[in-house]
Amino acid sequence: MGSKNIALMAHLMRRAGFGASYEELEARVAKGYEDTVEELLDPERHGVPPLDTFLMYRYHPMNEIPGAPPYGSMNFMYYMLTTQRPLEEKLTLFWHMVFATGNSKIDNPTEMNRQINMFREHGLGNYRDLLMRLAKDPAMIFWLDNNMSHKHAPNENWGRELLELFSLGQGNYTEDDVKMASRAFTGWTIKPKLPRAPYGRFLWQFEYRPEDHDDGEKEFLGQRGNFNGEDIIHIILQQPATARFIARHLYSFFVADEVQVPSWNDVAPRDPEAVQAIADTFTKSDFDMKSTLRFLFNSEFFKDEKVWFAKVKNPAEVVAGTTRLVGDFQEPKPGVMLLTLEAGYQGQELINPPSVEGWHTGSEWVDTGALVRRVNFVAEMLGDASKPGVQSIINKLGSKDALSPEEVVDGCLELLGAIRVEDGTRQQLIDHVKAGGEVKRGSSEEQVRAFSQRVTEVLQLIAATREYQFA
Amino acid sequence: MALIQTIGERTYTYSHCVGSLFAFTAPTDLVLGAKGVVYAPSRGADPGYPLGGRQRWTKWDLEEDVKIVDAGDQGSNDGELLWPTALDLGPDGNVYITDEYLNRVSIFSDDGAYLRKWGTPGSGEGQLDGPTGMRFDGEGNVYIAESRNNRVQKFTADGKFLSTWGKAGSGPGEFNMPYGLHIDRHGDVFVADWGNDRVQKFSPDGDLLAQFGSSGSGTGELQRPTGLATDKDGDVYVADWGNNRVQVYDAEGEIITSFYGDARELSKSATTFVSANSDFVKARKRADTSLEWAFRRPAAVAVNEDNQILIIESISGRIQIYQKEEDYLDPQFNL
């Protein structure tokens, strides 16, 4: 049943999306790897429709102007569950995790969703353009206090994080550069906000106040001039460190887990050559995300089996990926809120990262509490034979009347997306099936039900393996 | 839009607004009761989080701008609602509500007590799949549109099937996820054909009489129309939900004008809320309150005997009221 093509496609779809059903993997293999990458990168050109926001707002009206914070996160989760443009959404999550902005301070989920939507619309475009938009994004301005930064009293929060976390990375600028960048962004603020009641929240508005901008001379990263904010971004992009910093983020998010960002100055990249190659492409393409990701997904270091399952799934991937795998929520129905909350319980409350540094990723996603939630959530989903995706797996396995324990285990692993487990894990799964006796589909209603139960049992056990936690 | 506009020999004046998001939470319909009273179902928030606004229906005093009855709750047990969509008053004076997810009609007394329900899920005659718009006719029978069965069915008030028409599609008489339904004073049935961006008008037996509107945001075009109503002159008011406006057509379906919302003053209940909080008063003095004037997802329209046009907004939870003047074009004296 399995093939290397399927396994490679499963790897691509786990990274460039939220996984895929076996049927989708087969269709994509038939289409071809490079063509799939092109479709993911440019869904518009390939006729893949965007999400129908009217349909979402009809059935989930709170997704448009959310009141309480979790309803703001629900908008993002709905996209991840239902989008036909998985890379667009995955990259939206990527930028959300890099340019981490938290509703804990913004306290306006509507405004947060506008920022998320900006990542969705422009995330696959140009990084320079994205930084410019980010600098004018009302949520970011409020998050990093730039509305409190004045000509005669600059606030350094935005200036510092722009250099430390959004572009150059620690060690590639001085404290004076932070001060100069902050001066250059004075006057970049937001208009006075309407209160949230009595008619609900309204979007905030960017405002440039020339009278509050420090137009004096500044020396920034070795250049001298009467810089404004745009100049600062242009100078930042001239630094090789910026391309390396974003390249390492891309490697860590799409290829294999890196150490946490604060350690990047002390710990070398896992694959320095790959990171440099991404950085070179990023620079040569004038910071074009599409060109850079095209290079990444088609590279040998991405396809290398050594990096398959070399990433711990983040909670959004666990929840959205598993829900998509079992074919749930493809039609509007109540319950998206519960899934949104589930990602939060597992440690990733969307639109509300713990700080501007974002979530700590990799193995830090998993502590004992989170692990139990992850396993229980997946096991419950995969154990529900009424879900179309689970039914499809059962039917596929049931095309043969009698199966050996090895066929049951290998079949389940394959149909869940060519999952690879260690030999010891596989043997334990086989032993479990053996202990339950012969696996036959049969034809009576009772026999078919028993067969379904045997299969879903194995699926649930796979959900509990260490390996299922990896993407 | 100007607060007063004269067009097509009709004059419309913005009057005032009532309610706020504390009154209605994502309302989906608006129905007139006794003079000065309206009813609206609230779609509320997705289940799972307690502070999102529950599913319910509300009886509201327009003059005092206060709640009279607030009934129903989130859930699928008897008396609970998940996707309440349309509300109408039955010939028995009770409150009937369609639930688009639970595929049933729940019936409450006028003071909010749950009484009973009817409706079984399915696509057969008399079954329901996605019941949305609902109105009683002059004979006490009820018409219901269905978003997933893409049809209209007629029942007695206690749910006995009488007739049906329509199927999925975009051709004449076909539907794509119909939403609001209205019956005019002649008994003709208007359906907001949500996914097809049009309004279709049928005889009481389901013969297609007219259709108007097409996809877009230009004059006369519609984007996901939801609710609709007619006045005593036969003019048709359509909640052009996706375009954040209300479109006014004459009886032949010719566009007359559009309303975009003019709520320059707070409603009475909103004023009470704001004035009780000095921080809100201060913030409102600094901010651009003109953002509040426009409709935010107008969901349903109702027209009363005084030619007042009431428009309820899904996001702001507010009802904006316009007056259609009848004597504005009378000859003027040289005062």
How is this structure best described in words?
The complex is a heterodimer of chains A (471) and B (335). Chain A has helices spanning 4-16, 22-31, 33-41, 53-59, 69-82, 86-98, 103-106, 109-122, 127-135, 138-143, 157-164, 175-184, 229-237, 240-254, 272-284, 289-298, 300-303, 315-325, 336-345, 368-382, 388-397, 405-415, 423-435, 445-463; strands spanning 188-190, 206-208, 218-220, 223-225, 402-403, 439-440. The two termini of chain A are 21 Å apart. In chain A, the strands form 3 sheets. Chain A has a two-stranded antiparallel ribbon with strand order 1-2. Chain A has a two-stranded antiparallel ribbon with strand order 3-4. A two-stranded antiparallel sheet of chain A has the order 5-6. By secondary structure, chain A is mainly α. In chain B, strand 15 and strand 16 form a beta hairpin. The two termini of chain B are 28 Å apart.
| Integer-rounded radius of gyration of chain A | 24 Å
Query: Residue-averaged pLDDT of chain B, rounded?
Result: 95
Uncertain regions spanning at least 5 consecutive residues of chain A: none
Number of helices of chain B: 2
| Low-confidence parts of chain B | none
Percentage of residues in helical conformation of chain A:
40-55%
Biggest protein-protein contact in the assembly: A-B, 33 and 44 residues
Helix content of chain B: under 10%
Q: Write down how many β-strands of chain B occur, each being a DSSP E stretch of 2 or more residues.
A: 27
Q: Could you say which overall geometry of chain B the principal axes of the C-alpha atoms support?
A: globular
Number of beta-strand segments of chain A: 6
Strand order of the largest sheet of chain B: 1-2-27-26-25
Rounded Rg of chain B: 19 Å
Return the string of H and E elements of chain B.
EEEEEEEEEEEEEEEEEEEEEEEEHHEEE
- Name the strands of the widest sheet of chain A in spatial order: 1-2
Tell me the number of helical segments of chain A per DSSP (H or I, 4 or more residues long): 24
